[in-house]
Amino acid sequence: MDWSFNNDMPIYTQLVDKIKLSIVSGQLPPGEKLSTVRDLAAEAKVNPNTMQRAFQELERAGLVFSQRSSGRYVTEDVEIIMEAKKAMARQYVQSFMKSMEQLGYTGEEILRLLEEGEKEEKQ
To answer: What was the pLDDT predicted at 89?
Structure first.
């Protein structure tokens, strides 16, 4: 997992986003056992309390769950994962649309550019 961070957002929020992306993209499949807080914190070079806070947020969202004696796991509820995926996609689309509108593009022009980009991608 890429653990690079920027200064625009709190690190725990970025951790949540990175782990969430790994879950919704299938890198961390449903039911997968997650590394310990300490191991992931060491890997990401962050304080274990920061990683713990990220895990708590993911648990509140229902994307991970804890089993007392055996650790944390990715939820097996595919519906929750799909909802999180849709929510992330909506955020990306809103951010993209805002940026394109700031460039002066209309909705129709944005759609046309997307269609052209898709055609080029297929070639």
So the answer is: 96
Residue 61: CB atoms within 10 A of its CB come to 16
Provide the CB-side half-sphere exposure for 31 (13 A, CA): 1
Q: Is 66 helix (H, G, I), strand (E, B) or coil?
A: strand
Count the helices and strands in the chain (H runs, E runs). 5, 2
CB 63 within 8 A of CB 23: yes
Which helix (DSSP H) or strand (DSSP E) does residue 77 occupy?
none
Which two three-digit tokens encode residue 16? 């949540």
Give pLDDT tens digits for 35-45: 999 999 999 99
Element (H, E) at 2: none
Residue count (the chain) = 123
Per residue in 43-76, pLDDT (tens digit) is: 999 999 999 999 999 999 999 999 988 899 999 9
